[in-house]
Amino acid sequence: xxxxxxxxxxxxxxVRLQQLSLSPVPGSADPGRSARATLDASVExxxxxxxxxxxxxxxxxxxxxxxxxxxxxxVGHGDWRESSPLGRPVVSAGGWRGSTFVADLYVVTTPHRxxxxxxxxxxxxxxxxxxxxxxxxxxxLQLRSxxxxxxxxx
Length: 154
Fold this sequence. Notes:
With about 150 residues, this protein is mostly beta strands. The protein has one domain. It is about 10% helix and about 35% strand. The protein is built from 2 helices and 9 strands. The chain has helices at about 5-20, 140-145; strands at about 35-40, 55-60, 60-65, 70-75, 80-85, 90-95, 100-105, 115-120, 125-130. A 9-stranded mixed β-sheet has the order 4-3-2-1-9-8-7-6-5. The termini are far apart. The mean pLDDT is about 90.
């Protein structure tokens, strides 16, 4: 901090930053498999409203996950897929673990992540935050552009 950096230091940092990544969610692709479930929001800080219909449809290299009429999110298998369902970017990856579909949804412009777990046999789903955002648990609020941090501002 108390001396000027060098071109070599900048190069070392650039290489390190290029190598940083988040591991995709483990699980199988199970092509052609779809699921429909109802979200249970009884977990404190649920990211979505209780009773939201969750539909998982396979698409090339991943899935399209529909959260009722609220939003659609693209989920990759083995890599991250980016979408902007309400104007702000989210990257997602997922996979099947037996009869359970698990996906991580990272809201890129925040430090927050939602884990979606869908039990295809029980037809139930849960969407929980790793840490509930200070602005509240609504995933929809976090994905709206621009982010409103005060509910009294319209």
